[in-house]
Amino acid sequence: MADAVSVLVVEDEDDIRNLVALNLRRSGFNVLTAGDGETALALAREHVPPVVLLDLMLPDMSGTEICQALRADSKTQGVYVIMVTARTEESDRIAGFEVGADDYVTKPFSARELAARIAAMRRRPRAAPDPETWDFGSLRIDVAARETILDGQVLDLTRLEFDLLAKLASEPRRAFSR
Ligand code: CA
User: Fold this and answer.
1) Of the residues 28, 32, 67, 76, which has the maximum number of CB atoms within 10 A of its CB?
2) Is the pTM of this model over 0.85?
3) Could you give the C-alpha distances from 36 to 45, 175, 177, in angstroms and in order?
């Protein structure tokens, strides 16, 4: 019997995909690869990998669309999604978390760091977040302390801004009316 797939790498640039897959295999992961969104979704449904490394920019569909499709399918809704982006703007990060990404890496990233993040995800159950603190990649919202921490820096939010953020974060999959 073949080993269970441990990570699906979705990346349209051959050089990057091959390099990432090679490095992850060297780190002991059983790796599947896809160069476009359609293949990625088919492989994800067939193998249900615990972790999907998802490039944001793909030729046929965006990483956010793939992420939404994974979350909409009962078979794949529990997979961990690490979004890979070449951009660093916060708006892109927030958009990714709204569609259900669990973590982010920004290109170029180190193979060692990526392997460590994947290993950490596979150890942690994908359970409901602690209601007192919510972690979204580099963003942490501490409800009890009313603190928002991004990349280790406490953000200076107004009471309304914090309440809005906490409300949105409490149900990441839900769209709210104005
Ligand atoms: Ca790409």
Assistant:
1) 67
2) no
3) 15, 28, 33
